[in-house]
Amino acid sequence: MKYRQLGNSDLQISEISLGSWLTYSGGVEREQAQACVEKAFEVGINFIDTANVYGKGASETFLGEVLQNRPRDSYVLATKLFFPMTETDSGLSRVQIHKQLNDSLKRLKTDYVDLYQCHRYDENTPLEETMIALSEVVQEGKARYIGFSEWNAAQIKAAAEMTGVVKFVSSQPQYSMLWREPETEVFPVCAANGIGQIVWSPLGQGVLTGKYKAGQPIPKDSRAANDLMNVFISRLLDDKILAAVEKLKPIAASENLTMAQLALAWVLRDERVSSAIIGASRPAQIEDNAAASGVKLSGETLAAIDEVLAGISQS
After folding, report:
1. What is the per-residue pLDDT across 109-156, written as a single tens digit (0 to 9) for each?
2. How far, in Å, are 157, 216, 254, 265, 278 from residue 45 at the CA level?
3. At what angle do helices 153-160 and 127-139 cross, to 10 degrees?
4. Helix, strand, or coil here: 12?
5. Which domains does the chain have, with CATH numbers?
6. Which residues are catalytic, by number?
7. What are the pLDDT digits (tens) for 247-270?
């Protein structure tokens, strides 16, 4: 496993990181989920990403239980806030930032998180209030660094230009061969302000593994067939997209890579990406995905991928 620095922080995080959005908030049985976490550490993954809203606290509670016997300095732990936890608890107000972080720390059974992230931008709270509150939790030692997910370039720039507050070190956008939108504005403004990328859905909700076939039924054991885990995947199950993905298989084979490894290596080709978050439901998937770390794709391979996905990738 290779490691990269996260933005202007001193965090060295694994190129492949373990997410818990769907898998560890109810989509996967407890024993299997725990085996995945153990396998992640075994292959060198040191960055674990979660959020308070995943299973309304279930993911954090699970991680708190399975991580409590590991040395706290042996892994980098990140969580998020924004989405509703109750009818009255949501957003990025000062009150919510303090309350939700305290609740997350209790569930995670730890005194601090390494990275506290704004899960989305809060249009109903002044940015200054949010940034001051985030600075407070860093000063209190409850969060080492702060980040955000899915903020646009103008929002990122406004926060970066604010004085007297702690600065963001990470951005968590959706990014894959099939979704290149962040390359246009988000990546450049982040790079200019010392903000690294921790990207989610690098496998396109599993579509880039090649398991879904155009014109064929969805595999019964797949994410797309699981109502707990198939949020957002429907737009990617388009026959045109699936047919293009099928053409990536010989490209992966020519590099002696699995489809998942090709997709992850493609994301990691960009030095602005610090880590790619995977959401494995089986230990074998983690082992396969982790092998993408350190893979360098040739110029010919990258050009072939671009040719196959021309008109398919959304950017």
Report:
1. 999 999 999 999 999 999 999 999 999 999 999 999 999 999 999 999
2. 31, 35, 27, 16, 11
3. 60
4. strand
5. 3-205+269-296 (3.20.20.100)
6. 54
7. 999 999 999 999 999 999 999 999
